[in-house]
Amino acid sequence: MLLNRDRADSLMDAQGVDAIIASTPVNTFYLSSWATDASWGFGDLALAILPRDHSLDAAVLTVEVDMGQPQQGQGTWMIVRGYARKPGLGAGGVQGVMTAEGLPQNHQEAIAAHLRELRLDKGRIAFEDRGLGLDVNALLGSSLEVVAARDLLRDIRMVKTPAEMAHMRAAARKTELALQISAEAVAAGASCAEAERVFWSAAALAGGRPVFLLITPYRPGFGRLPKNATLEQGDTVTFDATTEFNHYTSDIGRTAIIGEPSAEQLRHYNATRLGWREALPHFKAGKRSTEIEKIVVSCIQANGNPDFRACGLHSVGLEHTDHPHPGGGMHSFDLVDGMVLSCDLPWIGPDIGKFHFEDIIHLDEDRLEILNDADGRLLACIDGRAVRVD
Q1: CB 31 within 8 A of CB 58
Q2: Concatenated DSSP letters of 316-330
Q3: Residue 1, SS3?
């Protein structure tokens, strides 16, 4: 099970919620452990209902052609209920009557019917989509108390389960492999535009789903270069990459230098590396993210780069920012044990180069686990090879 049920129970109790209804693919997958073809592949709507009372049936509600498919992946621990998508197709895609008789005609009706069955039709129900909640409430005669669940779900997801961590370690591994192969292409003479295509192919060949790559060539004393520029000795190339495995993401940043790095390039890279290492013991549950960011910046400045000014800390998981951010803003948050974090550490020295450094770490009580290879952050492109710089 992906769901952290204990944390869900605790947060639902704190908000007095009788059930949560998820309606995006990410959260339906998280609650049910089933990434339905309906929601991930075909644009239909699958939902998951999680009652607080463990004796009540949690359910996936999906279109009838999807009902026979929970064998995908590891299936689901929930019961599966259908609603009508198109008359003439029955459960599992078999031929049915042209009336879709006996099925709710839409997802709103399906939710209302299941809440009635659970006797939660007068409950306090948290909907990921509050507008959907209001529609269901109208069907039930305005008997529900509808509350918002989007950030409640993000709050639950902040603490990762062992099953989630297995996916995240795999995602980090596949991202790093793709980045290494992309850097090898640069070392062999590829432009950044060509190396970008290498990354997308390599991540897929490794079994991941490439999501994002920001690759930037930079020439000291000149500035940012076009992606198709021919790279020269001393140029830097930064990578900021995200690859998913089983819908769980990673976020890793690296820098490659064409040729041997100069003394100034090494000095500024080492300031970031040593400052980051010095800051890691401050990553503790209960600290505010903004407090940690200030500590990281201060440590990098103290280790040799007084011009370093800012970094960005965020959680990672099923979303790139896997913590509550009300209203869509990237708000600060409290660190909690069990979360996975990433910290963007970009820096530009106009006459030195552009650098990026980003690890992905698991905060586990007093232990910090770096999910990626902690020694592969700076690469030198020499004689057709991307060589680690320690």
Answers
A1: yes
A2: -SSSSS-S--GGG--
A3: coil
- The alpha carbon torsion through 150, 371, 288, 127 (nearest 10 deg) reads 10
The Cα–Cα gap between 9 and 51 comes to: 9
How far apart CA 313 and CA 43 sit, in angstroms, is 32
Q: Which two tokens stand for residue 170?
A: 């795999």
3-state secondary structure of 241: strand
Burial of 284 (0-12, 13-18, 19+ CB in 10 A): middle
Q: How many CB atoms lie within 10 A of CB 52?
A: 18
Our measurement of the distance from residue 303's CA atom to the centroid of its chain's CA atoms, rounded to an integer in Å, reads: 31
Rounded alpha-carbon distances, angstroms, from residue 295 to 15, 287, 363: 33, 11, 17
Q: Which domains can be identified in the chain, with CATH numbers?
A: 5-157 (3.40.350.10), 162-388 (3.90.230.10)
Residue 196: count of CB within 10 angstroms of its CB: 19
Dist. CA 211–CA 190, nearest whole Å? 21
Number of residues that this document lists for the chain: 390
Non-local (6+) Cβ contacts of 108 within 8 A are 132, 135, 136, 139
**Torsion angle, alpha carbons of 290, 295, 298, 299, to 10:** -140
- What tens-digit pLDDT sequence spans the chain (390 residues)? 999 999 999 999 999 999 999 999 999 999 999 988 878 877 788 999 999 999 999 999 988 767 655 555 567 899 988 888 655 444 444 544 444 567 888 899 999 999 999 999 999 999 999 999 999 999 999 999 999 999 999 999 999 999 999 999 999 999 999 999 999 999 999 999 999 999 999 999 999 999 999 999 999 999 999 999 999 999 999 999 999 999 999 999 999 999 999 999 999 999 999 999 999 999 999 999 999 999 999 999 999 999 999 999 999 999 988 888 887 667 789 999 999 999 999 999 999 999 999 999 999 987 899 999 877 689 999 999 999 998
Nearest Cα to Cα of residue 185 among 195, 175, 176 = 195
